[in-house]
Structures are given as C-alpha cells and as structure tokens.
Automatic annotation (TrEMBL), chains A, B:
One of its GO terms (molecular function) is metal ion binding. One of its GO terms (cellular component) is cytoplasm. Belongs to the FPP/GGPP synthase family. Its cofactor is Mg(2+). One of its GO terms (biological process) is terpenoid biosynthetic process. This is Geranyl transferase. InterPro entries: Isoprenoid_synthase_dom_sf, Polyprenyl_synt, Polyprenyl_synt_CS, Prenyl_diphosphate_synthase.
C-alpha cells in the first residue's frame, strides 16, 4: 500500500521531480541526530499526493518561470504541509494512528520526536527559501517575497489558526460560512501559498494577473477540501491511506455534514467553475493548471 | 513574582525596547482565533530575561547598525526562543509545569493550543524578518541572510537537533565533549543567531570581524548554559521562575554533574575569557557587548 501512487496523471507528472528534490534537501538519515532526521524523512518522503508542489510548478509553467527556480519553493510548501500533518496527528490534536497508509510519525517514532521533527521541518522550509542562488535565479527581493508569502500562510492568521478553529468547532454547531473560514485558513492558505510562491517570481502582487491567480487558488483550496470531506465518507481506508470516516468519528463539521453529499458536490463544482473563470485571461498557457484543477475536483485519492 | 524584573542592568536597558516591539508585533488577543493568540502572547510576553535581543542590539551598537533596523530581528530571535520553551515544556518532552514564575503554556491553556502556539510563533519569527522595509533599512539581500541565519540556527542541525540529543542523553553516560555538542546546538545556535542577525546587517560572513563575533557568540552560548546549569542547583524556584533542581530531577547531564560546581564555574570563566579575546580588535566600541557578557557570566537569575 505504501508505494502505490495515486491514479492522478496531472499530479503524477510532477511527483518524481519534487520527490527527488525533497530527497536531496532533507538531512541524511545517517547524520546526527539520526532519530530526528529519520523522523523528518519519514514524515515527508512517505508518499503523499504532492498537490501543493504540482500547483506551484503548474503556475510557474503558466508564467514562464524556469522549473529549477521553483524546486526550493515546491519543496518548502510540501515540507510545511508534511510538518502540519505530523503535528495535527498528535494525541493532543486529532490523535490519528494512520497516515499515507503507514503509522503516523508519533506512532512510528515517539511523541517528542514527532513534535521536534515537525518543528525542524517548518524551519527547513524557510531555510530552503533563503538559500543563496548560484548563477541565474530569483532576486533577493523575490525570495523575500516568497518568505513573506509562506510565513503569512502558515501562522495564526493562516494554517495554524485554521487548525485551532477546527479543534474548537464541532459538527452541527457551525454554519457554512464558519466552515468556509476554517478551511480557507487551515487548507486554503497553504494551497494559495503554493500558487503565490510561483507568482512571486514573475509578478508584482498588485497586478491583475497575480490577483486572478490568487482568487483561482482560493477557490481551488475549497474545492480540494470539499473533495477531501467527500472522500472521507465515500472512499475506503486503503485508498485514503488514513482512517476512513475519521472526520465523522471526530465529530468534525464537514461540507457533506452541512450540505449533504450532493450539496457538497454541487458546491465543489460551483467553486471549480469560479476558479476556472479566473484563468480565462491567460488563454492556453493556463492549460496545465486547468488540467490539474479538473483532477483535484474529481480525484478519488 | 511574575513582574519582578531580573536584577541585570545590562539586560534591563534593552528590556523595555524589545518588550514594546514584541507587544506591537504579536497578534492582538481579541482577534480570532482568540485562544491561540492569547497563548502566543502568554508565551512571549510573560517575562523572560531577553538575553538574545540584548545580544542582538549590543552587537548592532558595536557595528553602528541603527537600532530600529534591529527590532524585527530582536523580536524574531526572542519569539523563536519562546516557542522552543513552549514545546520543550510539553508533557511528551520535559513535562514542566512552571516557567517564568507562571504555569507553562500547556498548563495555562491546553496541550493542543500550546503545540499550535509554538508552531505559529516559529512562523511569525520568519514573517517579521520578511516584512517590507518602508524607507531606509536593510536591503533584501541582508534580510535574506537574516532568514538564512535564523532558519539554520533553529532546525535539526541547531536548536531542534540539540533538544533531540538532549532528550536522548542521560546523566553520567555522556562526556563533556558530547555535552558541549548538545549545548552548542540546543542553546548556542540561537545565541549565535542573535549576534549574527545584527552582523548580517553590517558585514559579509567571510570578513574577520564577522568571524570574531561568531566565535564570541559561540563561547558565550556555553557560558550562558553553564551558568544556567549552576543556577539550577544553587538558586531557588522563586528566583529562577522555574522549578529548582529540574535538571537533576530529569536526570539530565549538566556541567556541574560532569565537572562539579567549582569545575563548572572555572569552565565558565575560561570560556568567558575566550569570548573576551574575540572582542579585542573592536576596541572600546565593544564595551556594551563586554558589559553584557560579564553580566551573563555572573547573573543570579
């Protein structure tokens, strides 16, 4: 089950690139402290759909950013995602035992190591964005903007804040607007960062193209989350690689709980259409991003 | 006990500056998610000697860096320190109940909130270093160097790695060289970062002055840790603001355990002298840094 790749061609085309880039950027497992390094590698290299790197590369293609300029950012956003899963799975948080078809990091190692591995991974993401460029590459100002993009997405106004709000909320007691706020922070902020990290190397924040991409990413973040919520109910544990029905077991508010399965599917479609409308002005250059967005709407894994 | 400032004039002169800067940079407690923001403020604003900001400012004075160029870095390094204490105090790590004369963050709030507050604080530190400069200020290249300095200090090769090695070690089974390696990472890396963050705004990494400051900081990191180890034995809980004898209770390897109290004191003096020798070439401009170093050697709090 571990090595089975998801059946998602648009994602898979980026998978080997980002996996190789991650492999070379993570600390070697034989360097001290070995257990910590092994846990960091376990958390990041154990499969995963690599949605955020794919969005980063596909946005870069649209904007003619050389792909090797994007490897650090693609790794950074995936490493942040991996750290957040390690911490979210901890007993004091969601208390999950299974992730990507394997024991969660605190089960495979121990809680202290999982906490520290998450901490060190967050830090590594920023280290990657700050690496000096040899030869042609992004300017220091562009790289600063990337650090700003990623740090704002991760913190209390973004991903960490969304997880805090998610823990505080329980099913039935929140409405769709509240759920959307949680998901815009918890999942959406990092999905948006994946797109922005590429845009930061080509565009100023205040030009219309940047804002189109930003609204595309915001809509797609919700599409992704809605699909996640639906799969939690309709897919099986082996396909998911995490416990099927975990959201329901945790009494979490989800789109299907609030809107029903059909309602959630309709909402996903609407948001996907909204995302597509933001790509119109880019013409055929946006084709890789469109293909990826279609796959995220319809994915079964 | 909470508000009693340490009797350390060289530290205290920077205290109100960095406390005001931190206050204005932390998320307001009334903004959602309130509990998370309250925990972040609790962790950072609840006292603390502010050793790292003081080292940053004093190094900046030596190098003629305007103090207001240093506020973000001084806050960033203190915020990293605060997050590391929150996570180190967790039940799965050192399981401490008292910190800075108050309940630790997971005791005052809950474990999930403490984990997330630490996570969001780490991220905030990098956000502060990436803030756009209005008017005169550091260049993007200098700020990138600061992000690099801080991120390398925090991760698995630095602070987080040192904590992992500290958890793995137990008293009696390690020698002084191993203990020094742990402390160079766990405490020393961030102390060095405090000095480097100021040097990054004035010097290239490869000039002798940068290297003198770096070796000064490396030696002072150990001086600071040795003094900490001694105070854990000789001071009382009220003065420390954390449980007296916690190191012994945790069966931790410390300098006094390995060298005896007198031996540890002698080692601290030797390292302090080594640190002082690195400042000779700066002449009288290094006076603030010398005063601070003397205070760190002799502090009672």
């Amino acid at each position: 089950m571990n090595s089975r790749p998801p059946i998602c061609p648009a994602l898979n085309q980026w998978r080997s690139r980002v996996d190789a880039a991650l492999e070379s950027r993570l600390p070697p497992a034989d360097a001290a402290p070995q257990k910590l390094h092994a846990a960091m590698r376990y958390a990041v290299l154990g499969g995963g759909k690599r949605v955020r790197p794919a969005l980063c590369y596909a946005t870069g293609m649209l904007l003619d950013v050389p792909l090797d300029w994007l490897d650090d950012a693609a790794c950074a956003v995936e490493i942040i995602h991996a750290y957040s899963l390690v911490h979210d799975d901890l007993p004091a948080m969601d208390d999950d035992d299974l992730r990507r078809g394997r024991p969660t990091t605190h089960r495979a190692f121990d809680e202290a190591t999982a906490i520290l591995a998450g901490d060190a991974l967050q830090c590594l993401a920023f280290e990657l964005l700050s690496r000096p460029v040899a030869g042609e590459g992004p300017t220091p100002a562009q790289k600063m903007q990337q650090v700003r993009t990623l740090s704002r997405a991760c913190g209390s106004w973004g991903m960490a804040g969304g997880q805090a709000m998610d823990l505080a909320a329980s099913a039935g007691r929140i409405d769709e607007a509240h759920l959307e706020t949680i998901h815009r922070k918890k999942t959406g902020a990092l999905i948006s960062a994946a797109v922005r990290l590429a845009a930061d190397l080509a565009l100023d924040e205040d030009v219309p193209a940047y804002q189109h991409l930003d609204r595309f990413a915001a809509a797609m973040g919700l599409v992704f989350q809605i699909r996640d919520d639906i799969l939690d109910i309709t897919a099986d544990t082996a396909t998911l690689g995490k416990r099927q029905g975990a959201d329901l077991a945790h009494d979490k508010a989800t789109y299907p709980v609030l809107l029903g399965l059909d309602g959630a599917q309709r909402r996903g479609l609407e948001l996907h259409q909204r995302a597509m409308s933001e790509l119109v002005s880019f013409g055929s250059a946006a084709e890789p991003l469109r293909t990826l967005a279609d796959e995220l709407l319809n994915r079964h894994c």
